[in-house]
Amino acid sequence: MFRMNRDLFERLHDLLVSTYGLQSTWHMSSIEALAMFLWIVGAPQSIRQAANRFERSKETISRKFEEVLHCVYNMSAEIIKPRDPGFITVHPRVQAPQFSPHFDNCIGAIDGTHIRVVVPSSKVLQHTGRHGYSTQNVLAICDFDMRFTFVVAGWPGSVHDMRVFNDALRKYDDKFPHPPQGKLKYCMANLQIFCTMMLYANM
Q1: Which of 110, 117, 184, 187 is most buried per CB count within 10 Å?
Q2: What is the DSSP letter of 130?
Q3: Which helix (H) or strand (E) holds 148?
Q4: What's the pTM?
């Protein structure tokens, strides 16, 4: 139901409690709060559906969802970043014969992807892009281990990828994983195809 096995669920729960401030209250344990959060984002499910499934009020579901989301957001800052911020070493996969010269001096892939969202009727138009339904335009960067190293979410689906990219460079310049000048670069590629290629290279 939570798109993860029990061991992983318990490890995630313990990490959020010990490091990122997830707490139990008199009326709800931290385990139930995390379970509700994962059930909502994993399916996805609405607040009303979660209220029916867990037999809690919509206000409680909404408040607990926000609390867990805040903890996960804080955790993301420690996870979504390059393992080698200076990009000193070249990943072994790039050195494989089938990827040269196409991926020479490449440190990862950058792309915009559209995630379906439900928004108020007053915001449907600005979130509707070329796909014909409401989305957010999400900028993401991943490395050759298929780990996300940078993500920006929140832009309406009608916004062009280049505007999201330029704004990310201005607003998050200190966090954006810049390639060393004149040495390395990003592959502008479909992330799904890129990750499939990297998975194939690991077989």
Answers
A1: 110
A2: T
A3: strand 148-156
A4: 0.78
Cβ-contact 131, 121 below 8 angstroms: no
pLDDT digits (tens, 9 = 90+) for 105-162: 788 888 888 998 888 999 999 999 888 999 999 999 998 888 999 999 999 999 999 9
Q: What share of the chain is helix, strand, coil (3-state, %, to 5)?
A: 45, 15, 35
pLDDT, tens digit, 9 for 90 and up, residues 10-60: 999 999 999 999 999 998 999 999 999 999 998 778 899 999 999 999 999
Q: Is residue 170 within a helix (H) or strand (E), and if so which, with residue range?
A: helix 161-171
Instruction: Report how far apart, in Å, the C-alpha atoms of 191 and of each of 49, 108, 118, 123 are.
Output: 31, 10, 23, 27
- In 2-116, alpha helices (H): 6-19, 30-42, 47-54, 58-79
* Rounded Cα distance, 71 and 19, in Å: 9
Pairing of strands 185-188, 148-156: unpaired
